[in-house]
Structure prediction request, 407 residues.
Amino acid sequence: MPKLLRGFRDIFGPQAAALTALENAARKVFKLYGVQELRIPTVELKELFVKSTGTTTDIVQKEMYAFEASHHTVALRPEGTPGVVRAYIENNFSQAEPVQQFFYIGNMFRAERPQTGRYREFEQIGAELIGNSAPAADAQAILMLKDIMLAFGVKNYKVKINSLGCPKCRPQYREKLFAYLSQNKQELCELCKDRLERNPLRVLDCKIDGAKFAANAPKMELCPECQEHFDMLKKLLAGKIEYEVDPCLVRGLDYYTRTVFEFQAGNQSQNAIAAGGRYDTLIQSMGGVPMPAVGWALGAERTCLALGEYQPEKQTKVFVVCLEKPCIEYSFNIMQSLREAGIITEGGLFDRNVKTQMRQSDRAKADFAVIIGGNEMAANTAVLKDLTTGEQKEYPLKELPCAIKNR
Prediction:
């Protein structure tokens, strides 16, 4: 019998309920911030991710699912930002409405080693704020994430921020970092030896070498414009969210400029549950007009782990039990009328005996059973049984929904 591929999974029960609750919490926050949904394709041209994400990143070098299809090299999306930027350019948003706020919710794919909270198919919730170069956009992106955590119930997390500078001040830092890492080149992993020549910042984000070299690495010296931007961001966040400035924080994608940030939970080495930053040069590098932007992505599975056991809001549930075959249509109509009244209703096992139906009501964790036989059908009533206390009472059909809600 065929089995699941390693790194993939079926999601059901409490895990599915937790993911749905997180999605609903995010949608409510996005609505408050005026962010609109953008649904991007699951499959794009591979070159989209190579050009945007960067040739020295783990995603492009070893994690992307790419294959030939219809005379093109395509890839399952490993992240959401490139697809959003491509849609922004291709649909000419920069001409009609340059300032845009998008969110996306969808599955991503990376061929990396499965571990707790990390799968080869995983869900991301992301936001991209395009067209605003002010630090207020950075602050808004960070506080949006905070509000989603609050709405979902995650409390034990910490926030780290940093600035990676801009094309004016980063080259000097790159030279200093290259000199520092070159002294320790023999200690680098094979991937980082290659990255050292092309993009030494990637070494600080490496899962193997990052922690080893970050502590003693030279610190970024920002140009006046970048320093002013970062200082204003810190002022805007003051009193609204607790955060730590981490000079060693480097995101694993090549397109970030200036602000980067991470929401972290847990003690494991890979503890980021959400992260993002500013990417003011990406849209132009992909063929669009120069346009500032800031965005983030949240790992849904990791965020659910940070929450712990998900406790869904208690809602009353009833189970309709039919005692006799002539009452099937009557029972079915009652089932539908209760749903129309907004009451969670299960049942429909009308070809089974009463004992089997009642056993299923226990498995369904129903609060009440609505029991219908010939006498109830003749009187246009139903018996409502409290499955916790065993108490039961007969009600006219028109009073049944109110009786359930009141009890």
Remarks:
- The longest helix spans residues 13-32.
- The chain has 17 helices and 16 strands.
